Amino acid sequence: MTTAPREIASDARAAARGTATVLASRVAIAAMGWAGSVVVARSLSADEWGQFSFVFVLLGLLSVVTDLGVGRVVLARLMDDDPDEVALTASSFVALRTLLGVVGYVVAVAYVLILGYPSEVVRATAIAGLVVLFATPGNALSVLFQSRHRLTYVAVAESLGQAVQLALTILAAIFAPYLLVFVIPAIVNELVALSWKSRGVHRKVLGVRPARRIEVARWREMLREALPLAIGFALTIALTKIDVLMLSLMDTFDAVGLYSIGYKFSDIMDTMALAVVAPVSTLLVAAWPARPEVFRRRSRDAGIAFGLMGAVAVASFWPSANAVIELLYGERFGQSTFAAQLLVVAAALTAPVLLGLFLLASAGHQRSYPLVAAGGLVLNIGLNLVLIPRYSFEGSAVATVATMAAMVVALWIVIARVVPIRGLLPVRAMLGLACVAAAVAATGQFVATHTPLPWPVVSALAAALVLALAQPLRLTDGIRPWAILKARRG
Question: What is the pLDDT of residues 333-373, one digit of tens each?
């Protein structure tokens, strides 16, 4: 007897296995990406590194255009019991995302041309923009795998692509250390990942294959339902990337490069949060609206997971930030330490925002999100306009932390009002974890500065102390820290 798609999507144990696999792969991918960034930063001049960083931040910002929140809306339809309906939804969705990738590429090139960026930046954007063309359909295929909790296949595809990118980056540094050459490995990365995912779909790893026919009429319905979420998602991406664009216009590319070092660390936290929230969103969609208690439990478990991840990241990174940055990138990047510390804090705050966004989409209340995101964007732009002229990239980092803190509070107030389930976020536990992280980070900073203990030891002890304190202080909502991702029967 064939298992129904919604029943597959409701399998918490499959979600836990997928989460663990994706989390491990994302850590590996982040490590390889990190190593690649070290190679590039050490190979290019300060201005070239700033230009390189700017181009990829700009391309990241284009998910505003290439995603539009459609994947989160389509996810529920991919759980339909009719395989023909699922196949048509899949083919139409992949085609739509591919078209949006083309639009995103055109927007990127037009942006740097219209605003008169240097010719090197224009050429790098035109070449690196091919990443968008390949990544967009690849991300669409990932949603198909997500709907069946087959994320291991996605993890392998993306890990393989990143490994190829790292190898090509090292070769470029040895034989042709130029800006335009360094953008090519990222394109190959997306090509490898797309090819592997396409192979899995062709071999029916999902149990279903997209139809050969594309029903363009479905695009209108997908976009109409996704519009509120698309607006909110676009504003969220904008408020997390707009600071780099503003720095490039109000300061120098050297400042952009220094600031981007901090993002290399905060991106690891963002990557881990996305790895956890993807399968969680599948469980939330499957539980809504028939099983409200399961919906609540999944949300609280994810909140605790994000709280612990953020607390450990901040407490372990804060005291060792300067040593790590100078070791990896060189002494000239040491001045970016404070900005990097703040951006890791901002990343810890971004995780509950992501959870709230996916929760609203799962419960069909995505129309409530755009106003919150718009407020965050306005606040971030306003703070950057005031702080960049005075404090350069460190001012941008302060603006980012303040904005994300305001977003967390505003978003979860909205959720409490529109979703008819109470206690979706373990507020007391997360506030307690934040206090523990702050205290341990401050202690670690003092120990690193005034004792001969090596920074790796200080960081390891800080991480262990956060986990050791979480259980006796009852900050894990009854869940053991080492079993945070273990699914409980719903």
Answer: 999 999 999 999 999 999 999 899 889 888 878 778 888 88
* Greatest extent of the chain over all pairs of C-alpha atoms, in Å: 67
How many contiguous H segments (helices) and E segments (strands) does the chain have?
A: 19, 0
383-429 pLDDT, tens digit per residue, is 999 999 999 999 999 999 999 999 999 999 999 999 999 999 999 99
**Structure tokens, 302:** 């994810």
The pLDDT-based confidence of 4 (bands split at 50, 70, 90) is low
- Residue whose structure tokens are 């509950």: 352
Q: Whole-angstrom Cα distance, residue 330 to residue 318?
A: 18
Residue type (1 letter), 323: A
Residue count of the chain: 490
Give this prediction's pTM: 0.76
Looking at residue 178, the DSSP 8-state letter turns out to be -
Residue 409, CA atoms < 13 Å, CB-side half-sphere: 8
8 A C-beta contact, residue 137 and residue 98:
yes
What residue ranges do the domains of the chain occupy? 1-215, 226-481
Instruction: Give the torsion sign (CA, 149, 79, 294, 366).
Output: positive
* CB half-sphere exposure, 418, CA atoms < 13 A: 19
Separation of alpha carbons 469 and 166, rounded Å: 38
Under 8 Å between Cβ of 153 and 200:
yes
Cβ–Cβ < 8 Å for 193, 236: no
